[in-house]
Write a structure and sequence with these properties.
By secondary structure, the protein is mainly alpha-helical. It is built from six helices and two strands, in the order H-E-H-H-H-H-H-E. The protein has one domain.
């Protein structure tokens, strides 16, 4: 069971992560907050530093279809569940929430401060930095929607 979340930028995702740290949460998916933050950080770092060539070569032929049909759904908050990710983006099990939220915050800060063009996404291609911010924010909303804030915590 997922909750409805929509972020306009990565800073919204950071605020949600901080709320979850402060108030606690329960999972309805596979990953903890730490694992989600690690996964998001790894994908953003690849966007800034470059994706592996094999990933770009596999994604390139699919770009027109993915960009036309999948990207708009993702940006609208209708990200499909259960899509397998590359092994390099799968976080380990033994991560600390507070530590990984801090690492995610540092990554988002670096991303936001960059005026350099980001590397093309393997499946969606080139976008402006603002479009990538919205893309990553939508990706974060998808994953964080599987975490439910504790309401009775003092």
């Amino acid at each position: 069971m997922r909750r409805e979340l929509k972020f306009e930028c990565l800073d919204d995702a950071i605020e949600e992560c901080e709320r979850l740290i402060q108030n606690g949460y329960t999972k309805s998916g596979k990953w903890s907050l730490a694992q989600i933050c690690c996964h998001l950080r790894l994908t953003i770092e690849s966007n800034m530093n470059g994706y592996p060539l094999w990933m770009t070569l596999l994604g390139y032929p699919l770009r027109p279809v993915l960009r036309s049909f999948v990207l708009p759904k993702l940006l609208d908050g209708n990200s499909p569940n259960g899509i397998k990710t590359a092994r390099m983006f799968i976080p380990p099990d033994d991560l600390n929430d507070a530590y990984e939220v801090d690492r995610f915050k540092t990554c988002v800060s670096r991303f936001g401060a960059s005026s350099d063009s980001m590397h093309a996404h393997p499946g969606f291609g080139n976008m402006t930095n603002r479009q990538f911010d919205l893309f990553h924010a939508s990706h974060a909303a998808h994953h964080l929607s599987f975490l439910h804030p504790e309401t009775n915590r003092v």
